[in-house]
Amino acid sequence: MAPVQISEVKGNSREHRTATHTHIKGLGLRPDGTAERNAAGFVGQAAAREACGVIVDLIRAKKMSGRAVLLAGGPGTGKTALALAVSQELGTKVPFCPIVGSEIYSAEVKKTEALMENFRRAIGLRVRETKEVYEGEVTELSPEEAENPLGGYGRTISHLLITLKAARGTKKLRLDPSIYEAIQKERVRLGDVIYIEANTGAVKRVGRSDAYATEFDLEAEEYVPVPKGEVHKKKEIVQDVTLHDLDVANARPQGGQDVMSMMGQLMKPKKTEVTEKLRMEINKVVNKYIDQGVAELVPGVLFIDEVHMLDLEAFTFLTRALESPISPIVILASNRGLTPIRGASDTLPPSAHGIPPDLLARLLIIPTHPYGPEEIRAIVRARARTEGISISEPALEAVGELGVQRSLRYALQLLTPASVLARVGGKMNAEVGVDEVTEATGLFLDAARSVGALGESVSGYIS
Known about the structure:
alpha/beta, Rossmann fold, Helicase, Ruva Protein, domain 3, 3 domains, eight-stranded mixed sheet, globular, chromatin regulator, ATP-binding, TIP49_P-loop, nucleotide-binding, RuvB-like helicase
């Protein structure tokens, strides 16, 4: 089977899990690498942020590939926030793949396969190709029909006439009917700016010409200027894909005209394992592109939260995968101390963070520490601002105090219910006061009070 052209590979990037950490915009470091007290949504954890800043510099210098970092600290000390801040610092062009340790245990594929899939998601390939293209604004689009050569009453499109306008003139093209199908898929109409690759016939709609920007007031369109230069030109096209995108594109059956292949395409695609042989072939092609200077490898970040949930088999596979010539940067996070290694509790003694000693020796460990009272209050204030909650200063103090006494997560979770209570109570601007915070505290218990209440009410049922 011939490998799929990289230009045909569609990206399959996953959304970042940033719902809880939308206020995190970066590490908040000064140019000299030292941490601001309160910057980019981050409060405190100065030493951990500075250490992550060094890791970001190593990743940018491409001297971190195949290494791993462990973020170790108690629950709610900002481990996931640090990993997401690293991804924000690296930018959108560097792949960032966040998973949870238990996510690899799937009924459809082996855990080692799921782990390798996420490894490949976190390795990017930036391909630079100089292509001969026709680029411009569509001013004429008319398919010409002819009698169907197979007979019958139908007519078929014999060729397509298209006129493209650029800054330096226009060009009328007579194209193959297969390109008309590609133009229909892209939903191209008059006034759109498109480019057509001369060699492959691939069509890409860039956007609507900005000459039409004032035509409609409420048009959800992306307006682009008419391309500079001639219609027919050589253009450098940069495409970012991950190795997983290449794996999936080449593993998927390319189809055929028989009934079985068509049925296979119509049925819901099942998650299938990509063979090691196929991955080796793709690696060869990727290495060839890199040697030719056509492509550049972009080692991304694989973030594995709750890493103590992995078992001995997964840890062994992880250790081997880190030694691979093509490997991403792996950031692990754990809130456990000395704990048994999953899958080896009978044969091996408990280990730090539930990670085998041979893998621990490869890790750079960054500790995170519990927040102080002032830091908790600053985090509560930042979170209220991010969620658009209007809250009085005494109420902020009350929520901050709950964060100190109970837990930071409990305090942050009370903000939205308290805001709802203020709105239901008909308060001006729905401002949260101390009364709403007290009411929310009575409605929603923290873990310690919940256990105490359960112990008192059903003490006869507790062993």
